[in-house]
Each structure stands twice: as structure tokens, then as C-alpha cells.
Task: structure prediction
Amino acid sequence: MRVDLQFDHDHLWHPYTSTLNPLPCYPAIGADGVYIHLETGEALIDGMSSWWSAIHGYNHPLLNSAAKSQIDKMSHVMFGGLTHAPAVELGKKLLSMAGFDHLFLADSGSVSVEVALKMALQYWHSKGEARSKFLTLRHGYHGDTFAAMSVTDPDNSMHRLYKGFLPEHIFADSPQGQFHQPWDPADFASFRAQFLAHHPSLAAVILEPIVQGAGGMRLYHPQFLREVRALCDEYGVLLIADEIATGFGRTGKLFACEHAGIKADILCVGKALTGGYMTLSATMTTSDVANTVCGGEAGCFMHGPTFMGNPLACAVADASMTLLQSGEWQQQVAAIEQSFATLLPSLRQHASVKDVRWLGAIGVVELHRPVDMIKIQAHFVEKGVWIRPFGKLIYMMPPFISSHDHLCQLVDAIDSALEKDLLAQ
Ligand SMILES: *Cc1c(COP(=O)(O)O)cnc(C)c1O
Result:
């Protein structure tokens, strides 16, 4: 059956789009390896991993067979009072990979952030301390649900639209120094000042380690994280690491916190958890946090989604963890980083380019002006690639199986777009 584009245009909401003037959408009918196949015949090299998630590529035989064999056993049973091998086996792998004791399975990245924030609030409630503020960074992104949005950059997420509904938290300036630049202690001044001014009311610090993703694709210095960890330790404030985008090898380490050699108290993962097959997220924590949360007045953690621990999603996630444990991702991501290092600097010659940067399997081209979305998207499709910029950022986070040739084609397509100046006027 052909994709009914008119119905889509007239009735279906897409992410961050208008019903009055929806952006054009391209009909996908299949995906395989690094390719997305369009109904119109094009095969596009995917530069986005479907928003950080399809790390092993599409239609992966091991993930497919995990999904198929699980669906014939059971797609879902409630997790209240029942358990199953997919959740248990996934739990064993995840906790040992990340170094935590307790795992909460949730539906999406945003929900895992809600869960993490609730854990922190309940932790202090159990201890009899009134702490309900979170300290976070400007240019951060933690999801689209209300509590997640309240710790997301106030300008990007338009806090003023939801004034009165959103709890007000504390924002420090995001680090200016880049990952590869020398550390400048002044970069920590704003965070330190906000922390010291508010620490008695702080339940936790929440941040994206090393890479601020949707809030600006910023790659910051590991020393910043070490300083955060040290302050949290000194004053007994919890640290929540949101590794929903960075987790599972994307930055060149299994988890981005490893760049700084630190460990959070609560860790959120999502996106690549199922290798991009379906939605699943997890919030992990230490036995100290978990047992304190549950040792309080409520006697338990107050959260339990209907589809918690969905066996299909857990089976695929477990297979994805098996692939990661083989360790092949390390050479793959290192090779992608090497390709970016070879290919990206030449883009600096375009007057429209403000900065290029890369880390692991993340490549970013920051422009002086926003792109013309419709024109640049059409250009990329014509060049046989799938890259979805936002604002002034053209960025790539390709599947780990991408070859140097695939990356050359992605970067060539960006190069020719800049050549044609497909930016907003
Ligand atoms: C995408 C993302 C989220 C939200 O995840 P969803 O699955 O879209 O709800 C939260 N935090 C970070 C860092 C993300 O990149």
C-alpha cells in the first residue's frame, strides 16, 4: 500500500511541526544496514541513527531474531507481580556494564528522567530533609514531559509558554570550553556559584555528561564533570547523569561519564538501548539511593507504568547489549571519529560555518545562520543521504557500522549544501 502523504499532511502531527504549515515528509518503506529506503526509490545513507538510536544499523539479524522469537512466546505481561527472562537478563547486563545495583525500566527517555527526579525527591523525603530543587545547565535537554522540561534549557523549551505549570529550578551557565581545548577553571565559576548559593535546597544536579545534545550539540571538557562530582560529594547532593543520548558507545566510551572517570548516583539511558527498535529506557541507581528511597514513609518507589519491562523491548535490548559486549563498537566508533577528523576540518572554508567539532561517532557543523529546512532536506535526499539539521546545526550521529565511504558521502552532501548556501535568508 502506498503511503497516503495527503492524509499524513492533513492529520498527523510530526515532532515539533505545525498543523497549519507542516514541513514536507518523505515516505520510508524499509531500512537495512545504514540505508533508509524511500517509496520514491531513493536509498539514503542514514546520518542520524534515527535520533541516536539505531547504533547497529537497521534490520540487524540478531535484533530481528530476538524480536521474532520473543513475540512467539509473549509480547507483554504486566510487571506487577510477574517477571520474565528478557527483563532479568537485560538487567544483569545493564547493571554490570554501568556499575549500578538497581534498575527501573521505563517507557521512554523523558519518563526515565521523571523517574530519576522522583527518586531524588523521595530520597530526601525519606531522610526527612525538605529538598526539592534541581540544579542543571543552560543549553541542556532532558525531554518533553513536564518535570523533564523544567530542567531543560528555558529558552529552547520555551518555559514562558508553560509558566505556572513548570516547577522553577536553578540553571548554571553551560561550559564554554570544548572537549579538546585546555581546561579553564573560570568555566566552572557559574556552576560553583549557583551550587553554593542553593545547595541546602538541592535534591540533585542533573546534566548530560560531556555532550549537550538537542540543546546545541556542545562537547565540553571532562574536568567540568569532575568538578561537579567533587562539589556534589562535598555537600552530599545527588548527581543524575542523563546518558540517554550519550550512552552505549556514542562518544567513544561506553558511557560518557567514563571520559571524566566519574560515576553518577542515578543514571538514565534510553535511545540506543534497544538498538533503535522500539521505545525503552532505564533508570539505574546505587543500593544506597534505592534503599533510602524505599526506607521512607511510602515504603516503596512510587512509579509503575503499564508497559513496564515490556518483554519484546527487553529481549531486543538484551540482544543489543550482547552486540555491545562483543566490543566491536570500540573500533567502529574510533574509525568514525578518525573519518570525522579527516573530513570535517575542510568545511571550515565556508564563510557560513562558525565551527566544526566531533567526538566519537558525533560530527557537528555549526553555522552562523539557520538552515532553510525544506531546501536543505530536499538537497540531502537528492544526494542520497539522510541528515536532519536543526536551527544553525547540521550534525551527524551515524550508525556504528558506517564505513569511511558512507561518511564521505554524508560530509560531501553537507559540503555541497554549504556551497549552494541553502540557509535561511
Ligand atoms: C532524547 C533525549 C531525552 C528524551 O528521550 P525521549 O525518548 O525522546 O523521551 C532525554 N534526555 C536526552 C539527553 C535526550 O537526548
